């Protein structure tokens, strides 16, 4: 079976033999017709890297000899998607390989794709810059194809969770054990989802399960071929380290397992790679002629997957990444190519080594829950034994009961919106990482305190899909812990050594409690505020905060929010949310709705039939549509302010743009 697929975006590369340097027997090599888009994507990434992070350290995915990595590995990618995919490939190559970038990436696996974590990096010298580039990538993926983009994000997060547990110093006893490791280590599943994005293909869970045993052989062949061609560069680095430790490379492993030299070990790696290549062809053919006879979409997917094998081999033969001696010549060739494709695009030839160490101390990385240990040994002022010395030794009280509720609320999954907003603002402010970490800690501490108090005041049984804190620790203990966090937050602000920060903190805390007092009063008295009063209550919040509050009101009355907070939980709490304020303002004589709200407030909850009835009243008055339109106006204002700040600072804020995109309803 000759694995090939005809399409309008690529052409078949002629070659003199049925293989490529002993690999890819009976595989067709294709190259994208719009390769200039791939080169432009990579070069744009390098420009962004230099702008946001620092000097370029090594060659990436461009190859003026055999074709850009994206052009030959995903030759049937839709032309309009090739640039962003190549941008991502370049970003990954700048971290040595895909998994290295993903395993140490800044996506928060608990953050629902909104928040970004801070992590130590081996090559990245700017946390803020890294987040800029990642946000730009994700925003572009979402704008092109949100459904396929979500698959890429899910794969990314899965890899973060799995690769973080990988032991890169381990020794392997056999090839099968190593191949299972290497498939993950090379990032093959993540590249797979990028290929699907490029093609616009979505697979169901059943389809994924069906093809998994087939594509495993393809991923194995890709990983072993990567070892074969990257070995020489890696070996030179290994020799510089006096051959200490071990290499994560099949060639080196065969040298150890069989006690052979490098040429023989390479021959063995090529042999097992060929076996996986042929096994993939066999499994694809059996599937197409057997159980998958009618699965046309999977036929296309599997053939496209197979095109990665010869593309990877061809690219590896003379890529400057594996052959540093070609860098200067390749740079000149590529520069000439790009002048023809895009005269204004510049190519950075620098391959610099400019690592830096983090200046954040361990104490600055401590969380809001790290209680100070103020206990100290009492010094003696006299050799004479005092009365206190005759008493039992004092045992300092621990903080486990005080911080138990706080630790619990902190452990619940969070979207990380506030942390992401701080990151976004820092794109313009450029504060040092240690200062940003402290500000995030203040925001997290305050937010968790408010959540614990809100759930008690609203009698909420759930928080983020889990039991609310007070239902586990009791209201009294939860209130005490929340109050401590408020004091802790004030102390953190005090440590910023800026009185203006303390003034802002006190003023905003005062506004917070005043606003909450109105919310509680309206709920308890059954007194519906006017729209003006409701908006005034949240007017102390910034524009993005207003949007988030009304968005929360809107989503609480929609089905996609019920898993986290319960079905229309605001109705159980008797709260006057923005949609309710609208319907009661628009229909002041709607006594049926007012009666439902009053009786449910007395009962402390609302039955499902009554909730459905309330939703019918909202639908009749067009309240949800009105709320959605209000959110649209607020979003327009947010975008306007953001664009104004970008013009003033002359800096596009991709982190903020991505955050706003994810918050849009």
Give a brief rundown of this model.
This protein is mainly α and 665 residues long. It has helices at residues 35-52, 69-73, 79-93, 98-103, 127-144, 146-163, 175-185, 188-199, 205-240, 250-258, 262-289, 296-317, 327-341, 387-390, 400-411, 417-429, 433-457, 469-473, 475-494, 499-525, 531-537, 543-556, 562-565, 569-573, 578-586, 591-603, 608-621, 623-649, 654-663, and strands at 10-12, 30-32, 462-463, 466-467. It contains 29 helices and four strands.
> What's the architecture of the domain at 10-341 in CATH terms?
Orthogonal Bundle
Largest sheet: 2 strands, antiparallel
- Give the strand tally: 4
Class from helix and strand fractions: mainly alpha
Task: Specify the number of helices.
Answer: 29
**Strand portion, in percent?**
under 5%
CATH class of the domain at 10-341: Mainly Alpha
Strand arrangement, largest sheet?
1-2
Could you name the CATH topology of the domain at 10-341?
Farnesyl Diphosphate Synthase
Over all CA atoms, what is the radius of gyration? 30 Å
CATH superfamily of the domain at 10-341: Farnesyl Diphosphate Synthase
Mean pLDDT across all residues, rounded? 84
